[in-house]
Amino acid sequence: MQPRYIGPYVVLFRNQRGVYVLSELDEAVLDRPIAAFKVVPFTTRKKITISKEMLDASESRLKEISQAEDEGEEEPEVEDSEKESRSEEEDQQAEESDDSEK
C-alpha cells in the first residue's frame, strides 16, 4: 500500500501556469513542478526560511523547472553521456536478472 500523501514540502514559488516548485525540508529541490491540485495546503506554526545559497539547485535550474511544459509526467532531459551510462547500467541489470533466472 502506498502512502496517500508525501511531504511536507516548502513552496519556493508558483509559476504563471499555477504549478508549484517545491523543496524538501532538507532544502533539496524537486526536479519538476507539481500541479496545484496535487498540493495539500498546510499552515506552519512558524515561518520556514530557506536561503538561495542553501538550495541544491541554481537560480537557472529553478527557472528551468518552473518553465517545464508538464507537471512531472515525463523524465527530465539528461545529457547524452548520462543516457549512455544509464542504458549500460540497465543492460547489466537485465543480464544479471537473466542469469539468476537460469
Textual characterization of the structure:
This protein has two helices and two strands, in the order E-E-H-H. With 102 residues, the chain is an alpha+beta fold. It has a domain of 58 residues. A two-stranded antiparallel sheet has the order 1-2. A hairpin with a 5-residue loop joins strand 1 and strand 2.
What topology emerges from the helices and strands here?
Elements (H helix, E strand, L loop, with lengths): L8 E6 L5 E5 L34 H8 L13 H22 L1
Antiparallel strand pairs: 1-2
Q: Estimate what percentage of residues fall within beta strands.
A: 5-15%
What distance separates the N and C termini? 31 Å
What does the main sheet amount to? 2 strands, antiparallel
- The number of helical elements comes to 2
Shape: extended
- What gyration radius follows from the Cα positions, in whole Å? 18 Å
User: What is the SS-derived class?
Assistant: alpha+beta
Order of helices and strands: EEHH
Biased composition (Acidic residues): 67-102
Region (Disordered): 58-102
Write out key terms for the chains shown:
alpha+beta; 2 strands; 11% strand; 102 residues
Question: Would you summarize the structure shown here?
Answer:
This protein has 102 residues and is of the alpha+beta class. 29% of the residues lie in helices and 11% in strands. The chain has a two-stranded antiparallel ribbon with strand order 1-2.
